[in-house]
Specification:
By secondary structure, the protein is α+β, with helices and mostly antiparallel strands. It has helices at 3-9, 23-34, 53-59, 67-71, 84-97, 102-116, 120-144, 157-163, 193-196, and strands spanning 45-50, 74-81, 148-149, 170-179.
Length: 198
């Protein structure tokens, strides 16, 4: 499928048919998501992959009983990871393994030290804006394989963190249910070019 088709055909599915995504296709979506871009390659996210009905049911109250979560094959919970100190060490270790030059190591350290010293809300905002990039990558990766999705911001992050027993450093930020649509898309409505580009 050409990327233009993916972008044109993708829509926010409100009801899935309950059919399970084959494991190999799910693995492909996750691998493409892993390769998502991020500022300075910090990758400040973790993704909880949920396929069991019991957990999806437990999350329904924190999702305000929206049907996408219950009817999807798999639910991806994208969490912003604010543990930039831990990320810094992982990145430096990775760069050392590939014998990156010292200027590259210095640059990573400088960028991450700046983020580490931000106020907590600024640090969270930095992590979340990158997490959205990963979620969008998952949405288009899924569609490229014939899998439907629905980006969801309408949920209670604290409720999700409690049910999923998340550490304080992981903040549920956006949900991406995956599966096969049981509804019909409305015509795509977007502002005209004159409203977007200037």
């Amino acid at each position: 499928m050409e990327f233009k088709e993916i972008v044109t055909q993708r829509y926010a599915t409100k009801q899935f048919d309950g059919k399970q995504i084959p494991e190999e296709k799910l693995r492909q979506v996750l691998e493409m998501t892993r390769l998502a871009p991020s500022a300075a390659n910090t990758q400040p996210w973790k993704v909880k992959v949920i396929g069991d009905e019991q957990t999806k049911q437990a999350l329904m109250p924190a999702t305000f009983n929206q049907p996408q979560v219950k009817s999807c094959s798999h639910l991806l919970v994208f969490c912003a990871n604010v543990d930039y100190a831990g990320t810094k060490q992982k990145m430096i270790d990775t760069l050392k393994k590939i014998n990156a030059p010292q200027p590259a190591l210095d640059q990573v350290e400088m960028i991450l030290n700046r983020i580490i010293n931000l106020a907590p809300q600024q640090k969270l905002a930095e992590a979340q804006k990158n997490t959205f990039l990963a979620a969008v990558t998952a949405i288009y990766a899924a569609k490229s394989l014939g899998i439907d999705s629905c980006p969801m911001g309408g949920f209670d992050p604290a409720g999700y963190a409690k049910v999923l027993k998340m550490p304080d450093t992981l903040i549920p930020t956006i949900l991406v249910p995956l599966g096969y649509a049981a509804d019909t898309p409305m015509p795509k409505r977007r502002f005209p070019e004159t409203e977007i580009f200037f």
